[in-house]
# Entry
Amino acid sequence: MTEYFPGVSPIRYEGPDSKNPLSFKHYNPKQKILGKTMAEHLRFAVCYWHTFKGLGGDMFGLPTMLRRYNGAGDEMRVAEETMVAAFEFFTKLGVNYWCFHDADIAPEGATLAETNKRLDAIVKLAKQLQRDTGVKVLWGTSNLFSNRRFMAGAATNPSPTVFAYAASKVKKAVEITKELGGEGYVFWGGREGYDTLLNTDMKREFDQLGAFLHMAVDYKKKIRFRGQFYIEPKPKEPTKHQYDSDAGSCYAFLQHYKLTNDFKLNIEANHATLAGHTFQHELAFAVANGILGSVDANRGDTLLGWDTDQFPTDLYDTTLAMITILKGGGFTTGGLNFDAKLRRQSIDPVDLFHAHIGAMDAFARGLKNAVALIKDGRIDKFVKQRYAGWDKGLGSDILKGKVGFEQLEALTLKQGEPEPQSGRQELLENILNEFI
Ligand code: XUL
Ligand code: CO
# Structure
C-alpha cells in the first residue's frame, strides 16, 4: 500500500524532556485528569479542508505544496487517494476524530445527482477506513460558499432556486454525516450576509435563514440523525458583514426564530478575534447561555486583520479557553477541531505533523494549567467573594424581585455612598502567570 507520510511513525507521548519533534511532550492521551483521559477531555479532530485540500495558495500566489495523493490525474482517483492519505495521517497522529465539508471529500459533478453519486462512492470508502481505524466524524458540513451559484448567499440568497439548491446540498450532507456516524453537523454561513445594503433586504434574508434552519431540523428528525447541530459565528470574510457575527448575534437569532433547542455554537478562535472579542469571551458567552457545543481551534495574527487560521500555540489562549470549557462542563458531542492551516512556506508533509503536534501539546498544557488553577482556587475564591453581596440580604432581595426602584432609592438615601472595592486585576494576572 502507498504510504503518503513516509518516515513518520505513530506519534507517541515522550514527556517534556524529549527533543524528538515527532513526539508529544504534554499530550498523553491515556493520562487521567479529573476522572477523564486527556483524549476524552480534548476530543481532537483534524479538518479535511486545510489539512488535505489546502495547498498554500493565497490571493497573490499559486499553491506551494505538492502532495503525492494529488498526482493521480483523475478527480475521483485523487479524492480516493486523499481519503486514504487522510486516514494514514489521523492514525499516525493519534486523533480520534475528523471534520469535513461535502466538497472537500468529493469534487462536485456536472449535476447535483452526479455530485451525490460521487459523495456516495467516497463515503463508502471513508466508512470502511473508519471501521478499520476506529477514527470517527466529529462533524460534517456542506460548502455553501465556494461555487458561483452561492455568490449572493445560500439560504439568504435573493433567489429561491438557489435556496432550494442549498437545501438539497445540506440534505445530502446531513445524510452522509449520519452515514458516517458523525456526532455533529455545522452551519457556517460563509456568504449569509451582504456586501452592500443597497441591494439587500436584511429582514427577508433573516426570515429565509430561519426557515432554512427549521427545514434542516425537520429533516434531521425525520431521518433520525442524532448528532448535534451547531452554528459557527464569524463576523466577515468572505462577505463584508456576516449575519452570524458572533456568539451574541447567533444567540439572538436562534431565540428570535425559536431554534435554541436544536442548535449550539461552534466557536472558532480566529473568528472571535475578527469580531473584536477574545476567544475566551466567545466561549464564556456560550457557556453563560448554555450553548457551547464545539470549538474550531486556531489563532489569528494580531498584525494581520484577516482569518489567518494559524495553528494554536499561545498558552495563555489555550489555558483560558480550557478554564472556560471545563467550567462549562467540558465537551459532550463537540471537541477541538483544528480549523488551521500551514503557512505557505511550510511545504513538506511532515510540517502537518509538527503543526498538529504543537497544537495538541498547547491544548494539553492548557488543560493541565486550567485544572491546576481551578484546584488552586484563589481566582475562583476572589470572584465568589466579589459577588458575595448577591447571595444574601439586599442582593438576594433584588434578584427575587422583593424590592423595586422606590425601596432602593430609600435605602440609598439612608446609606449614602457605597464603598468601592479593588478589582485586583494585576494580582489575578500574577496568579494566572504562576500556572502558565
Ligand atoms: C471558515 C470556517 C469554515 C467552517 C466550516 O472561516 O471556519 O471552515 O469551520 O465551514
Ligand atoms: Co471554522
The longest helix spans residues 349-376. The mean pLDDT is 98. The chain has 16 helices and 14 strands. The pocket of D-xylulose (ligand 1) is lined by residues 49, 101, 141, 186, 188, 232, 234, 268, 296, 307, 339 (CB under 6 Å).
